[in-house]
Amino acid sequence: MSVTEKMILRGARLILPDRLSEKASLLIDNGRVASIIEGGGAVPVGPMQSIDLDGLTLFPGFIDLHIHGAMGVDTMEAGADDLHRVSRFLGAKGVTSWLPTLVPAPAKDYERAVGAIKTAINQQADGEAAARVLGVHYEGPFVSTAQCGALRSNYFRAFTDIKELETLAVLEGPTATRMMTMAPEIEGGIDLVRELVYRGWIVSIGHTRATPDVLDLARKAGAHHMTHFMNAMSPLHHRKPGPVGWGLVNDDVTCDVIADGVHVDPLMLELLLRCKTAERVALISDAVAPAGLGDGDYKVWGETITVRDGRTSNQRGSIAGSVITMLDAVRMMLSRGVTAVDVARMASTNPARVLGSESELGSIEEGKRADLVALDDAGNVHLTIVGGRVAFEGRD
User: Fold this and answer.
1) What are the pLDDT digits (tens) for 200-232?
2) Burial letters 292-307, b for 16+ CB under 10 A, else e
3) What pLDDT score was predicted for residue 386?
4) 258, 264 in Cβ contact below 8 A?
5) Which is the catalytic residue, given 286, 328, 342, 371?
6) What digits encode the pLDDT tens for the residues 169-192?
7) Average pLDDT over residues 78-104
8) Is 268 exposed, middle or buried (0-12, 13-18, 19+ CB in 10 A)?
9) What letter would DSSP give residue 359?
């Protein structure tokens, strides 16, 4: 089906921005949601593809802000064809948009990786339907050595000169998303926030031990999001609230979280939601190349990463990313009793808002892109639509 053709999705439970609508239908035209038919309203007739979604729940497509790869593909080493392979895999897991995420590395590695991302973006409009690459997310290199996590600290930098930014390969163009995770307490950190915001980057705070006063300065400079909240940041302490305490109490700060039951205990996920509410939390996968391959030992970022029972560990014994998808995070939150409407906010609406793309993505509303995923009651994907085209149909 081309994006110029019409499609009608019949009889689904629709997850709308503020409610769930039973037995509704959705008309897609030219890649966008043309009409939402609720309450037994008349369904348009005429030549169009018709898909019956009776018994399924239709969510807005999931958006992954932070993912390093999957199916053996590492975004630091991938070519455009490799990125397309990840996009196909993600499409089968309900993801309709993603940000390939890069780790601290030499400038030549950044240049190669961003070049592949640029090629993939240019090719995907005319290629097969799959999860769309939206841009690039730099996790570092301007982060704290005291909170390096699984990142290679020998490539970390301070921001001492504007030329430091010139060594980063940059996606050009008004539609290319550029995001960076950084620690505001590094040398020149607040100046870096200002410069990135001036250049149109999305700034997220992470891999940090910053104190609340430094974090306040970063927020005033334009940093309003936090990366894999509670991971790779100094822990909450009753006399040193640090990034976690600061993030919990500031309502104009959003945060993303790895909801795999490994990075963050489910009880802490509940605490996070009680403090931030579903309006201010985004789900991410933080998946690394072994995602989708099962248990084993894998070479990632120059070292061996072991995957056992869904948990990663590097040679230092640290967790080294995840092997989940956004679908797994969605299932985790649904299993904890979070409503489908709130889960859609965390998996779709809030990521779109972080990216500044909420007018186009992140919810099922007339005029928005038809990026959709249909799940059964067990959380299995039966249909993924990207820009009005079927990217996956069957059962994941």
Assistant:
1) 999 999 999 999 999 999 999 999 999 999 999
2) beeeeebebbeeebbb
3) 98
4) yes
5) 286
6) 888 877 889 999 999 999 999 999
7) 98
8) middle
9) T
Q: What's the burial of 121, exposed, middle or buried (CB within 10 Å: 0-12/13-18/19+)?
A: buried
Q: Which two tokens stand for residue 382?
A: 């039966």
- 112: which residues sit within 8 A by CB, 6+ positions away? none
Question: pLDDT by residue (tens digit) across 220-269?
Answer: 999 999 999 999 999 999 999 999 999 999 999 999 999 999 999 999 99
**Of 360, 394, 380, nearest in space to 97 by CA:** 360
Q: Return the structure tokens found at 182.
A: 């950084």
Place of tokens 């579903």: 278
256 is catalytic: no
DSSP annotation string for 260-322: SSSSS-HHHHHHHHHHH-GGGEEEE--B-TTTTS-SEEEEETTEEEEEETTEEE-TTS----B
Q: Dihedral (C-alpha) 222, 228, 229, 233: value to the nearest 10 degrees?
A: -90
As a whole number of Å, the CA-based R_g of the chain is 20
pLDDT band at 317 (very low <50, low <70, confident <90, very high): confident
CA–CA separation, 195 and 310 (whole Å): 39
Place of tokens 């018709």: 50
CA dihedral 172, 174, 179, 184 (to 10 degrees): 90
With CA atoms as reference, report the closest residue to 183 among 271, 104, 286, 257: 104
Give the CA distances from residue 329 to residues 4, 7, 231, 304, 364, in Å, rounded to whole numbers and listed in that order: 33, 29, 16, 25, 20
Where do we find the tokens 């990463």? 305
Buried b (16+ CB within 10 A) or exposed e, 359-389: eebbbbeeebbbbbbbbeeebebbbbbbbbb
How far apart, in whole angstroms, are the C-alpha atoms of residue 27 and residue 29? 7
If you search the block for the tokens 């409407």, which residue do you land on?
Answer: 341
- Asked if residues 4 and 30 have their Cβ atoms less than 8 Å apart, the reply is yes
Its sign, for the CA torsion 38, 16, 341, 71, is positive
**Chain CA centroid to CA 153, Å:** 24
**DSSP single-letter state for residue 6:** E
Give residue 190's identity as a one-letter amino acid code.
I
CA distance 338 to 334: 5
